[in-house]
Protein 1
Amino acid sequence: MGVAPEVDKTLGDFVSEFNSGDSTAIAALFASTDDVLGIGTDPKEWWRGRATLMRVLEAQMKEMSGARLDISEKAGAGSWVAAQCSIGMPGGPATPARLTIVCTGDGLIEHFHLSVGAANEDVIGQTLTT
């Protein structure tokens, strides 16, 4: 089973709207329940509930005006998709990142997680098999 077509479309729309800076269009991609959860790279970026998440996404999209998100590889099944990507600010380097989206049956985002990887040695002080 591959990624559901509506979920794949939602991922594409999410990237497109992020790159255009259109927070209203991004908001339309999210489910309208308080179960929506967004997680970002900063330790304080854990947003529960649609109203909270939309408030923060609108503010951050203004703060990151011109930022670019590019997908390089994706995998998933049914209602979820994970992507290797890069994110960068205008004139700056692109940073490798990971994006995971979980959708409702109708393809609206219930959960997303955007993260930047950190080496195991930096996080737990130990090398692990990778």
Protein 2
Amino acid sequence: MQDFILTHYDWFKALHIIAVMSWMAGMLYLPRLFVYHVSAKIGSELSETLKVMERRLLRFIINPAMIVTWVLGLLMLWANWEFIMSAGWMHLKFTLVFILSGVHGMFSKWRKEFERDENKKSAKFFRVWNEVPTVIMMVVVILAVVEPF
């Protein structure tokens, strides 16, 4: 299996990047939907439409993209274990991706609160959280491209 991954490494990497882009697109859009949802009257057509959009975004884009990102990333990590373990930047990248996965979990929890009409958080709260995946993404990309340490 390791030889197969190394032989087709560029394909694994390309698919990994596509999955990351899909995951990030959803992670950047979902909290924006939350901002709009805060101002929608409970039970209104807008509120119910946003519930459907949020649920579908998570179920059909964000969750599968995160799973593919992790699976391909871990396979590439496993195939290059010695190199990766000697790269300090990879340890930080892995930690940040783990944190991003936690943010993903929080977004899922907040979506369920909206689904039950139990949200108590403000639009400003979600605007701030909308930036968290952006900052993590920027640092991860810099680490992966520059490999600073």
Protein 3
Amino acid sequence: MDDMLALTRHLPEIEYAPGEVVITEGGESPGVWILVSGSLRVTKNGKEVNTVEQPGALIGEMSILLGVPDSATVEAAERCVMRYATDGEALLTSDPRIIHLVAVGLAERLNFVTTYLADLKTQYGDAPGLAMIPDVLRQLAQQQGPTALPGSARDPNPDY
């Protein structure tokens, strides 16, 4: 994502202290952030789901592209420097190289998820709780819109 840093060098930089929130799950920010240095913690429903450490990584692009509220909370895990585009949509459409990098990043993430789910299915077969993997993979492959709703159809209070 070094190219993203080169393409966004004109944007202002903001420093975040450890624990400082960049994006709040359910919020509606029109902007996009680009990580210059440091580490970010991503949580969803209060559970840590990812750490972002790669310079040039975008934050907030999914909400802009889908036109939905922010899907996770992102906070500085350590001191971070980030670039900020107040109009995320304008940034994403300002240069075909930018949206290409975004598309590649999203494709990499989708490839990781589908490979991981397929690997779980291979390793554990139809173990309790994993029998739904073929349905999840099928839905991922066929999802063309409208925007998927968050969550799942599983029992929120299973007996296990």
